Amino acid sequence: xxxxxxxxxxxxxxxxxxxxxxxxxxxxxxxxxxxxxxxxxxxxxxxxxxxxxxxxxxxxxxxxxxxxxxxxxxxxxxxxxxxxxxxxxxxxxxxxxxxxxxxxxxxxxxxxxxxxxxxxxxxxxxxxxxxxxxxxxxxxxxxxxxxxxxxxxxxxxxxxxxxxxxxxxxxxxxxxxxxxxxxxxxxxxxxxxxxxxxxxxxxxxxxxxxxxxxxxxxxxxxxxxxxxxxxxxxxxxxxxxxxxxxxxxxxxxxxxxxxxxxxxxxxxxxxxxxxxxxxxxxxxxxxxxxxxxxxxxxxxxxxxxxxxxxxxxxxxxxxxxxxxxxxxxxxxxxxxxxxxxxxxxxxxxxxxxxxxxxxxxxxxxxxxxxxxxxxxxxxxxxxxxxxxxxxxxxxxxxx
Amino acid sequence: xxxxxxxxxxxxxxxxxxxxxxxxxxxxxxxxxxxxxxxxxxxxxxxxxxxxxxxxxxxxxxxxxxxxxxxxxxxxxxxxxxxxxxxxxxxxxxxxxxxxxxxxxxxxxxxxxxxxxxxxxxxxxxxxxxxxxxxxxxxxxxxxxxxxxxxxxxxxxxxxxxxxxxxxxxxxxxxxxxxxxxxxxxxxxxxxxxxxxxxxxxxxxxxxxxxxxxxxxxxxxxxxxxxxxxxxxxxxxxxxxxxxxxxxxxxxxxxxxxxxxxxxxxxxxxxx
Lengths: 399, 272
Fold this sequence. Notes:
The complex is a heterodimer. Chain A has 13 helices and 14 strands. Chain A is an alpha+beta fold. Chain A has two domains: 3-53 and 260-397, no CATH class; 67-248, no CATH class. In chain A, helix 2 (18-55) runs antiparallel to helix 9 and helix 9 (255-298) crosses helix 11. The radius of gyration of chain B is 18 Å and the shape is globular. The chains are: A alpha+beta, B alpha/beta. The interface between A and B is medium-sized, with 22 and 24 residues.
């Protein structure tokens, strides 16, 4: 049987029962559509995390304390270019949580105590006003720089620069507003104050020796290539100043490591979602097999006629497998179109409490189409072989 | 018609064929055929008769290469069939046997032309459309090629079935109760066509029937009972004498292959 004959025969058979063919196809459409959509979402969220963390700078390192606190003295030690030639900037921070209010407007925000370096180290931009300066830190000034969301919550669209707000009951003057950043772990819902102010005015913690303890220190290496060297320098300096002989009492995180951790978690999620979508494709495939088995039974007599006319087993197998593949491939094409449309439609939309971002790539639809053909082959073989094994005499007698 | 190398070699050569069906998980053995030997030569018009259960359907299945004998040998056009695989049998069916069924067995959604083209899908046949048109013209349906079976009368449907059986120029036209589902006038129409194909185009015809008047059109009647041949009579062409329609017709040659029909080898049978 020539390929044209096989294709023509399959189309002839499939058009005999259009509704049934369409319903069988639907399972594959939904399966492929969900695979495409979920994979696009997975890619999109990977991109988002990568972008966000790389936005912080891939030369960014984070030091957090473990058994012993990190202090401003440690920060000063890290700033010494003699010991840390690979380090460009060091930005300590203290995180607390607080209530900000003005008149009757109240909002909850993360209050972060920072130094002037924070602006550059974290790649932030000012929308209006100025950032915290060295004199503010020196004088424990009660001034605040608001995140975009906090500013909007309290002041709407007005410029809050110069306004007085109350943070946990204390009066602070707004000196600036940060440019909106959006996204995961965003700065938008934070309020930044001088680190000394945070320590002495808002935080209750004190350490012996009168130094200021910090929650984490962001360190910017001079160059991406110098990151490893910078890590070594940080470790050397802190071990010296902490007089460590055994285990470190701090941890240095590379931005890349954090990226990898997020990516790993994200990949796990994508694989899980993909598996769920894959199962729906499997169910679709079983639906195809079911329809093909019904079709073989219904067309027993036709099979008998074809056998009497000289059809070999392989001709019958080819005909039925082609029908199954037509169904799954057709479903695959519709599913790809639906999946790509859906992925494009939800991209950048705010739905069910999350902002969705998707990335459509050409490899996903191609893989989905190949898989849908494979599903047709896999689930079409058994019904086709059953058709080909029919005894022609009995098949011709079938009512 | 065909290139049988030896004109004396029968188209169908059945020797001591026995067919045993095992029923009830091998506990009961049914001998559907019991030592049947038949030779059928090129150009013969043979009727196989018998009551139901006589074994005529089994014999037809074996002649049509749908089944193989349990014992004995069967040659079609010199080829031994009894030990063939399923695919080889399909190949023989494709090239040597043209089936005409009781219920025409046309595919309902294909046109007459497409139905006639159907057997040519299995094998490499050039000019399928021309051949199919010629075959339909031969059975008098040259103007109905694009009708679907439902748009044709019962007799016309069966004529499409005959055209489909003929289109590959088989060694033998094997008709199983070809008029079983037809009324009297359609029966006459179909029997005339079969007679014409045999007498004028030299096609070897085997008709399996239980009806005397259908068998009466044949030149030779083989009667089966309980799986054995109980009579094998050669007659003096009653059909030609009895059917005035046949007389006035111009002599036609089968146009399917555009080959000249070979002289009909009826010699020695007194059919000339």
